[in-house]
Give the backbone structure.
Amino acid sequence: MTALAVELEPWEEEALVSLRAARTPVRRILRSLARNPSLLTGITILGVYATLGLLAWLQYGSGVGVLPLSFAWAQSLSPPGPTLAHPFGIMNVLGIDVANALYEAIPWDLAILGSILGLAVALGTVAGAWAGYARGPIDWVVTSLVDLLLSVPPFFLVIVLFVGLYNFVPVGYTLVLFVLLFAVVLWPYYARPVRSRAESVTAEPYVEAARAAGGSRARILTRHILPNSLDPVFAQIPIDVYQVFFVLTVFPFLGCWAQGSPGHAFAWLTPLPSAAFPEWGNLLAQGVCYGLQPAGSLNFWWMYTFPALVLILFGVAVALTTDGLSAVFQPRVAR
């Protein structure tokens, strides 16, 4: 049997074309996810983190940054380990439920990490793409600034800048200062490889054709240069995720051990509002400091093990997601 040809009115043909165009991106996304298990797994894990973070924010509201402390647990020489009531155990000295603290820290860590990487990626990607495409004085200024900032390790530069500027920031804005400083320090790590990629993409025939057709610089950047220069961004993001958490762990860790007693910390050496602030890096540092005391040895393993596992799983999810996105964008680079 042969299919009968049905003539459609012009408005019906236009509606059918619009419907197919609207459904194509959705189908393409679904096909990409089905063929990309790395991306699907990463997005799923990050989705769980995001959901838990939203639930924590709704549950605690304005009190999401205040951990409930227990004086009895804080003074206990043998704090309870994992039980049904407290599946991740209790952290002594601070006297907090580790599971509750990690749960309450999710919205804060997502906000801190998202703000730092969002600013750094946006600034570095746009600056690098513009420098690689425009060349000339703009390229010289961006490249010189990038080379200057790349000459110092980022974690060391952030700590030095934070300690130097701490006294000039109003009380309560130290975390904002930390986010801005880290974004300023990290953006060159995106600008440099994106600039190199944008420079090569600019020489492609389709960019020359767009320029010859009268396309503006902004249109060429957004339609051709930027979409085809994102591979280095996806490769750098997982590294910077761990860099941020590393620095957030270093602050309380140094404050804990430098005084020779876990009960005293350098309050000026941390961007967090308090030693008991719900943040994964802070909880990991406190867990290592308290859980590895000479008196406790490895008996208090849960204090640092579970914060470390939460951080590792989150980092793996980010790496899987960015690796999957890189695979999705790869065909666009090849064209």
Notes: Residues 38-59+88-334 form a domain with the MetI-like fold fold (CATH 1.10.3720.10). The chain is about 70% helix and 0% strand.
